[in-house]
């Protein structure tokens, strides 16, 4: 604890964002380059070095937050990187994409703004890459065992890196033409530039992990064949079966799933396309769904030059402060948050029918109507109460040339045949069933991440990857020194 009174003398200061008018003209990350390091040591000083640091419990990775806060406050970046990477394979991802449940569990947050844990984490990760503190760590010797990891999202990559470093020969199979899963084609570049992903993949290649892209297991290679070829298989395909909105007009042209829209805009950034076939340019866009995926669509549509963009959230607008009775500290509270995309939409007034940040809260979609050519033109909505019941007399109509459904995901996609070919057992909600050791009902086949847990956060995905790696290592060798940060049935701290 470098400054025992840091939390009293230093106010919270976050990584500043670039001006809205500048950043909506490009796809670069929204933050001011180089503006984090000058402030971060003083921000790390605000850590109280609590006797019982609840930030540990709030983060499923078990990140050693007080330890690396102290090291950053002393500007010992090498040691801080070692402590950070001891629990997190990819802190440059989580430092940009995680909603920071650790900050909700910060003891300082009981009566003050929390420590900027997420910013400190990102600063350490970026400094580690700049200084060369994260070289490849290939194993000293090979075990002679082989593992197939299906899926290259954060769960699959974390599992693959841990197992490779343990000495196993690992091949990662990815159905898309590039690696990264949703980090590649689901997350817009303004939230995380793809160079962050590429340099970590290069590290993994140098460690010995093999990658097979454009290979859908179950379609391009038989699932049973893959199982016979390897000593163990890890399913880390994520939960990509999107939820539908079964209302009149759903079949109109111009109504699309968010994950049909976002990958195309990412492919434009990758150079595959000049213009997205679903570009929002000049169109009235309505996004149905109030979560992070909806916000990603919002920021993307703004950058594409939409005529207007409105986001609908079926829940009422949350308050600015934690409700101590309903969501006591240290749980992650549902409070009003202003993402970079909402800030942009508010500043540019993209949604004349909505409030300051382009969101309409407590709004439920009734139906879509279209023109004589069968293209959507209007979205009909109604206000709802806390029980999602329509309020009489509140129906409204929004212009809508492009509607994006961002309603979440129910479980793994079965269309490739992987699950059915192996005979994998599913739970009623569509996720894969597993035992306390992350194993499925098929011998030698394990599952981790959203495919089994259901839609979750990137920190849970990485924790699952680390944990399943330990389970597979034990299966192959009879024991493991790999960490197991969570169990398959662990859940976030909630009321």
Give the helix/strand layout.
Blueprint (H helix, E strand, L loop, with lengths): L5 H4 L10 H4 L13 H8 L9 H5 L6 H9 L3 H9 L5 H7 L3 H4 L12 H15 L14 E5 L3 H12 L3 E5 L8 H4 L9 H13 L2 E3 L10 H7 L2 E4 L5 E2 L12 E3 H13 L13 E5 L3 H13 L3 E6 L26 H9 L10 E3 L1 E8 L5 E8 L12 E4 L2 E4 L3 E3 L6 H5 L22 E3 L2 H4 L4 H20 L18
Parallel strand pairs: 1-2, 1-4, 2-3, 4-15, 6-13, 7-8, 7-13, 8-9
Antiparallel strand pairs: 5-14, 10-11, 11-12
Helix pairs in contact: 3-5, 3-9, 5-6, 5-9, 6-9, 7-9, 10-19, 14-15, 15-16
Description:
The chain has 495 residues and is an alpha/beta fold. It is built from 19 helices and 15 strands. The protein has helices at residues 6-9, 20-23, 37-44, 54-58, 65-73, 77-85, 91-97, 101-104, 117-131, 154-165, 182-185, 195-207, 223-229, 258-270, 292-304, 340-348, 418-422, 450-453, 458-477, and strands spanning 146-150, 169-173, 210-212, 232-235, 241-242, 255-257, 284-288, 308-313, 359-361, 363-370, 376-383, 396-399, 402-405, 409-411, 445-447. The strands form 4 sheets. A 5-stranded parallel beta sheet has the order 3-2-1-4-15, with helices on both faces. Strands 6-13-7-8-9 form a 5-stranded parallel beta sheet. Helix 5 (65-73) runs antiparallel to helix 6 (77-85). The longest helix is centred in the last third of the chain and has 20 residues, at 458-477. The protein starts with 5 loop residues before the first helix and ends in an 18-residue tail after the last helix. 45% of the residues are buried. The model has no long low-confidence stretch (mean pLDDT 96).
